[in-house]
Description:
The protein is an all-alpha fold. Helices cover 71% and strands 2% of the residues. Strands 1-2 form a two-stranded antiparallel sheet. β1 and β2 form a beta hairpin. The N terminus and C terminus are likely disordered.
Amino acid sequence: MDDERADAEVAGTTEKKQERQSWGNKTEFLFSCISYAVGIGNLWRFPYLAQENGGGTFLIPYLVMLVVEGMPLFYLEMCVGQLMRKGVIGSWSAIHPCLAGLGWAAVVTSYLVGIYYNVIIVWAFFYLFSSFQSHLPWDVTRCANTTTLSLSLCKNASSRYFWYNDALEISGNINTAGHVNWKLCLILLFAWILIFLVMAKGLKAQGKVVYFTTLYPYVILLVLFIRGVTLEGAGHGIAYLFSPDWERLYDPDVWRKAATQIFYSLGLGFGGLVAYSSYNKKDNDTLKDTLIITLVNSATSIFGATVIFAVLGHLSHENGLKLSEVGSGPGLAFIAFSEGLTLLKPSVMWSIFFFLMLLCLGVGSMFGTLEAVLACMQDVYPTKNWRREVHVGIVCVTSFLVGISMVTQAGSYIVEMFDQFAGSLPLLLIGFFECLAVAYVYGACSFADAMKGITGRRPARWFQFCWRFLSPIIMFILFFGSVIFEIINPPTYKAYDDSINNTVETRFPAWADFIGALLILASVVQIPIFAWYNRPPNWRPRMQSFLRTCFRKSFLPNMRGQDLSDVGDDDNAVVGTAYHKLDEIASAD
């Protein structure tokens, strides 16, 4: 009965199959993936992590993690989506029903990250709208005329004052929620309506939008780079970014943050890559796409950080401050860039161009993040046969309601809390189980044969080695190391102190730690729950047989050499090649 139930559940997902969307052409797919991977996180999250973790010291573990973790997992997710031609839940369920929780974990993480990520887009919208004035509201003269700060203090911190007091209307700590910032709340509503209008049209509309959202940011970044490196003191900031402090390389927290930034920046573990690649043609060259997208993404992060640190170096030189005193934390990019924009003439025009660029980066990433959630709703009941507009509407409305808490006076602290908890540890665990699923449930050799069947190329031995051993070992160590680190060093946030017009390191209160734990569990708990619910009959002897099989030289040997070139359009084919083959081996043993 349990076998029949499991088969019925898998088969049920294929009934009334809707025609799957596809990309208009290869360029649309490539640009969409670049736009998804290259987002605000490259200019918002990467620079402040680099500043907090030793500048050049952070770059070394970041690049190491790119090679041993980022590229292999990116390639794996692209291959899984293209082979299974389903969303993230459908893809992992096809390999084995017990892996459905892996897809659900990715969907929950994408949903939670999407909620606070759109608030960052709201901040960019606020700065864009504020730029339509005769003078930028954060310049020195206006600060002195419209605030109680002295001219000398305005000169040192006008952009910082505008960020905390005008944009965020920030409170002194996370316990003081204060009132809803109605300016940001209305912009949040506008942002979700905009995302709904684009995503409800499907891939055809997204494919056209990404031509602009992908190319435009690089033009603006290049202009800002040319201006930034010519500023007095810029070399000091750039030198900090590229000069490592070798002693800090022994700090495990630096490696942990570099690893999570790779996940965050490339979009690993969110399910967006699986969803995007599932709309590809079966014979698409996934390896070429992987190399292009991952290298472009990392180069953009370093290039964008160079621009920011050039401005930081100039501000440090002009005001006699340390780099850490000029600006820090999640608001670093907004503070540094807004200050740098006052140095460009005409500053109003460049401010409009720049924050429009941030919006392009943010919206492009939001498309990929939410597409993972939408692809899930297309693949499972009861939402499978609902119209796409209904799917998008549900996601946007619920996200907006939760996001209102992030536009209160303590909203930026809540964003920081979501970023620390929802967008870090769950991704490491998801990536760990993704490697195990491909390497030991499907079988690395069998997976390589399957990819050769549809693309004509087997994944390189390096990638197979990473999937089997290197990547999961690193992620396992990082995950449990991070848990131990958080227990020993309770998480903190940067609370604003208006007496010094700067932030101070403050511990999260107990209730925030509790919510943070719930944010992590909401994602990772899906993995054991669905594994237990979909467990096969006589699972204990089968598990013992499975563990023995994992160490055989060739896993699933009777699948090797099988032609899977027709897998893509038949949702049941992969279930037959992985799930039932595993049962045959277990029964034989």
